[in-house]
Design a protein that fits this description.
Mean pLDDT: 84
Structural class: alpha/beta
CATH topology of the largest domain: Rossmann fold
Helix content: 25-40%
Number of domains: 2
Shape: elongated
Order of helices and strands: HEHHEEEEEEHHHEEEHEE
Strand order of the largest sheet: 6-5-4-7-8-9-10-11-12
Number of helices: 7
Low-confidence stretches: 19-25
Number of strands: 12
Strand content: 25-35%
């Protein structure tokens, strides 16, 4: 019993000591003046929408100048909020080091498809399903969607395609385009083969392949697995014998069948 009490007492003293040291370090850190700004941008997704100069300008804008300020007077959360409002930033983290540096870490958003709407609007859908505006300084190499798309940027920029319901009030082509683009992106074969998504005048989704002079009619984004399984079988067992340019249209929208139109 005595050993148990001693053991608990030691842990309490150790914890108190750690808390005291942390408080002491924080107090000393807050007395320091900011000696510099380090910016780290995660480019592992291959995108370059944001660079160090962009973040530098945001941090140093007007009253946000930080170098020379006391660390205690720098509002890290406010800076994070400001940086997170950049349309190409997924999230950021701003923190202070013991050495007196202010560190900014930035993660960019990852677009998966770029939409060119019928009225000339252009925007991305990112990997989380959110609408993302284009950048004047960088263009992502992603699949393109065009045709009879009437979802304008201003009307849908607040939407998340992943979370849209099927009600007629909010149903748009964006959710189907997102589902299809996400499926293709995650499949090694189809991400290499499909380069464009087209919406025809009947508002059906069509795919334009890199190899083969044909259109692939998907219809809508329902039963995607089944449709691509049919296409894979047809590619391997059909086109491998007839040739890649035998058909002008490969229609997958009907259940349990592939309907093809021969090239005239």
């Amino acid at each position: 019993m005595i050993k148990k009490v001693l053991h608990i007492s030691l842990w309490v003293l150790l914890s108190a000591g750690i808390l005291f040291l942390l408080g002491f370090v924080e107090s000393k850190q807050n007395d320091r003046f900011c000696s510099g700004l380090d910016i780290y941008i995660d480019r592992s997704n291959g995108n370059f929408f944001v660079d160090e100069d962009d973040i530098y300008a945001m941090v140093y804008h007007e009253a946000d100048t930080v170098v020379g300020k006391k660390l205690v007077d720098i509002n890290s959360e406010a800076l994070e909020h400001k940086i997170n409002n950049h349309p190409s930033v997924e999230k950021s983290e701003v923190y202070k080091t013991i050495e007196g540096k202010l560190v900014v870490e930035v993660e960019q958003r990852t677009p998966i498809v770029r939409i060119f709407a019928y009225n000339g609007d252009s925007y991305y859908i990112d990997s989380t399903g959110r609408i993302m505006p284009p950048s004047a300084q960088y263009t992502a190499r992603v699949m393109v969607a065009n045709g009879y798309i009437f979802d304008n940027f201003i009307e849908i920029n607040h939407l998340n395609a992943r979370e849209l319901s099927d009600s007629l009030e909010v149903k748009t082509l964006v959710d189907d385009i997102f589902e299809l683009a996400e499926y293709i992106r995650k499949d090694e074969l189809w991400s290499a083969q499909i380069e464009q998504l087209y919406v025809n005048k009947d508002f059906e989704l069509e795919l334009i392949p890199r190899v083969g002079n044909h259109r692939i009619v998907i219809g809508d984004a329902t039963a995607i697995d089944e449709k691509f399984d049919k296409l894979k079988i047809f590619y391997y067992k059909g086109l491998s014998k007839t040739g890649w340019n035998e058909y002008s249209v490969i229609n997958l929208k009907y259940a349990n069948q592939v309907v093809c139109t021969k090239r005239m």
